[in-house]
Here is the input.
Amino acid sequence: MLTVDYDLLDLRPGMRLLDLGCGEGRHAFEAYRRGASVLAVDWGRQEVATTAEWLGAIAAAGEAPAGASAGTARGDLRALPVPDASVDRVIASEVLEHIPDDRTALAEIARVLRPGGRVAISVPRYGPERICWALSDDYHANEGGHIRIYRGDQLWERLVGAGLQPTDTHHAHALHAPFWWLKCAVGVDRDTPAVRAYHRLLVWDLVRRPWLTRTAERLLDPVLGKSFVIYADKPAVRVDDAATEPAGDLARA
Here is the structure.
């Protein structure tokens, strides 16, 4: 299940890509299959091990094109283990909301991107996330949980403050928002029949990708999309902050 639009990311074969907070590697896998040189980074040892195992399976199955490469590293997003201006693309999907010092993490992303490079960042969308927080403390108030809810304009301004120039935004995963509202309402650790039935629907949609649910999600994403995704470029010359004002409706994103 991809959150980032690879066409907007403009990922091309041979590019060097960092997948930050990679989790179990979903975005790294797609980038590898598209011919990139990928480094997947996460703080969790198990996440790094699982991603490495699956990247190896992709290579063994011949699913990555010639010239592509992939590796993993355990690392802190506030001190990335790569040199300045050394990568073409960065993905940071559903990770900034976990990091107390997110400004330092954004400064690190700007540091490692080459001039002309691009980053795609996704965070939980303000409205759906606010409902989850209101329904359940267990959803977010735990070790390693979500520590903030971003408004779209806040994230835009923090990217500008890091020296990056935001370009495009969109929303994703509308079908997932009601699922999490349901889990928060009944208890995030409770496996009720309704939760199981909705989860089966999401798995079926992920595997089969039928036109009905794909069309429904595309239509509902602007209203209910669980994730807010923003893309930004690193310019050759630092952008004047005053010249990059966020769109007015981003405060509600």
Remarks:
- Strands lie at 16-20, 37-42, 69-74, 87-93, 113-124, 165-172, 227-233.
- The two ends are 21 Å apart (CA to CA).
- The chain has nine helices and seven strands.
- Residues 165 and 244 are 7 Å apart (CA to CA).
